[in-house]
Amino acid sequence: MATAKALVCYYSRSGNTKKMAQLIEKGIASGGVEVTTKDVKDVTPRMLLDFDAIVIGSPTYYGLMSAEIKMLLDKSIKYHGELDGKVGGAFASSYNVGGGNETTVIALLEALMIHGMILYGDPEGDHYGPVSIGAPDKRVEKMCIRYGRRIAELAKRLHD
Amino acid sequence: MATAKALVCYYSRSGNTKKMAQLIEKGIASGGVEVTTKDVKDVTPRMLLDFDAIVIGSPTYYGLMSAEIKMLLDKSIKYHGELDGKVGGAFASSYNVGGGNETTVIALLEALMIHGMILYGDPEGDHYGPVSIGAPDKRVEKMCIRYGRRIAELAKRLHD
Amino acid sequence: MATAKALVCYYSRSGNTKKMAQLIEKGIASGGVEVTTKDVKDVTPRMLLDFDAIVIGSPTYYGLMSAEIKMLLDKSIKYHGELDGKVGGAFASSYNVGGGNETTVIALLEALMIHGMILYGDPEGDHYGPVSIGAPDKRVEKMCIRYGRRIAELAKRLHD
Amino acid sequence: MATAKALVCYYSRSGNTKKMAQLIEKGIASGGVEVTTKDVKDVTPRMLLDFDAIVIGSPTYYGLMSAEIKMLLDKSIKYHGELDGKVGGAFASSYNVGGGNETTVIALLEALMIHGMILYGDPEGDHYGPVSIGAPDKRVEKMCIRYGRRIAELAKRLHD
């Protein structure tokens, strides 16, 4: 029996974005989808083909994802068109409110749309994708798990 | 037998955005989904509940949708949460390349994400949603029909 | 002796955005620029010509400014080109972190760029423009006053 | 006598973005500002301090600047705060209309705002910054030269 598979890919220096990745992983797993979480340095563009859902997170560097995440996206052009129809998601941490976390999430989602991926907003939680100001607190924990569940729900509807 | 239903909602003064709406309608219909196209003045927030896919188009006024489209979105808060899981899409016309058509499409998509809707990017065509520079030409016609078909395909996978 | 003049224009229902407007007004005044704060319902497009700096604020409605603010922008097309070179700024309130306040500020700034206005980012505070999560607290008060001062400083360099 | 100095920094593989950089350089020079154009590989973050205006261009890779440009921005954090008050600008090339050129320009401008830079929109030309679909044609040539002149004009008002 086929099961949807999800990848959570992150870049993290302080550990805040990594923590968010682990919480989203927990949410996806609780939604019944097989999930793998990886540091971007361990992700090759080729690996992206193996998953039905791909969720990418980054700290906010100048209102955008880190160059390391951008490099993965740039190299993924080798498989352009082959991610069409997969579920995509994004999350970000930042130091400040108003510090660029939303623009980071939107920029990641734009990249995933250009790959032909399917996105899912949220009317209740962090609308575009989870954001943390500094270290993830209880609010962020709830948001990340909720987001993971919604990604899992959509991946199952589309790919099981 | 249940069939997915789609709404194409537009604002248009010159007729360019209306023409795009009709082309997207054609694409959605050819994808096997029942589709209704309406001028925003004839759309109430309540009507949005009746459709599985909602595609909204606007000319580019200061890099964003017209105030008339924004007014529909603002009033739709009455049904906040009830559009969760519907398919959303956006398109825009503008006078110039670099004239704000992409920012208009992205802004519409952001609003639909906040309603909890599901978006679909495109690796080949206009990535975020169809855009026309001036009157729709052959390229735009192709893009709009392609976009309608993809929206229909996704709506059927999720809602049939 | 000529003095730069600034307008702070806001839309507010809960009073949060109005409070931010008043704090920004305070910052602008302390920066030595003559400043007027007005509810958008009392602002005509024609009035925009009378100021050297225009700062616009809105609550976050579906990731964007309210339709009332958008209507002012749409009508301002009557004076398109005549705002070229004025200083522009934006601010927003929202209910949640990740709730669309940054996308609201960016969307406002995009509109002001299309008018040919001059924008000023901030390396320390809320980078794109002040944002408040709910009612303005001490942090927001500081950010708004700081932003007002920076707008005043730029307006004086360009227009005194 | 002090003269404003401008840097045009670009990344280019096909040569399209480089061509745009040279046209913008021409516009800046004709506006009476000393201008240097450099491939991003020859630009260090430290160099950014030497200029009063910094204009950055990139091809559109997944709706954003190339990772090489992003890497320069990430490394520029070493001088965070020291670019406050400089003039910033952006431009982009892309393969398609609707292909992400506007989102690339906006993303670059967001990064420059986070450095505290001063941006200048345009009511007539490509509003956010010049964009080229494929190789620069006559329209793009005109836009780039116009943009360079406006950047020069602003840099002189602020920094001469």
Comma- or semicolon-separated keywords:
homotetramer; alpha/beta; 38% helix; 21% strand; Rossmann fold; globular; 4 helices; 160 residues
Q: Mind explaining what this structure looks like?
A:
4 copies of one chain form a homotetramer. Chain A is α/β, with parallel strands linked by helices and 160 residues long. The first copy, chain A, has a single domain, classed as Flavodoxin domain (Rossmann fold, 3-Layer(aba) Sandwich), CATH 3.40.50.360. Chain A contains 4 helices and 6 strands. The first copy, chain A, has a 5-stranded parallel β-sheet with strand order 2-1-3-4-6, sandwiched between helices. In chain A, strand 3, helix 2 and strand 4 form a beta-alpha-beta unit. In chain A, helix 1 crosses helix 4. Chains in contact: A-B, A-C, A-D, B-C, B-D, C-D. The interface between A and B is medium-sized, with 25 and 25 residues.
Concise overview:
4 copies of one chain form a homotetramer. By secondary structure, the first copy, chain A, is of the alpha/beta class. Chain A contains 4 helices and 6 strands, in the order βαββαβαββα.
Between the first and last Cα atoms of chain A, what is the distance in angstroms? Answer: 8 Å
> What is the number of helices of chain A?
4
- Please give the CATH architecture of chain A: 3-Layer(aba) Sandwich
**Major sheet size, sense and barrel closure of chain A:** 5 strands, parallel
Low-confidence stretches of chain A: none
| CATH fold field value of chain A | Rossmann fold
Shape of chain A: globular
Protein structure class of chain A: alpha/beta
CATH class of chain A: Alpha Beta
Strand content of chain A: 15-25%
Average predicted confidence as pLDDT of chain A: 96
Q: Tell me the total number of β-strands of chain A.
A: 6
Over all CA atoms, what is the radius of gyration of chain A?
14 Å
Determine the most extensive contact between two protein chains.
Answer: A-B, 25 and 25 residues
State the assembly state of the protein chains: homotetramer
CATH homolog superfamily of chain A? Flavodoxin domain
Element order, helices and strands of chain A?
A: EHEEHEHEEH
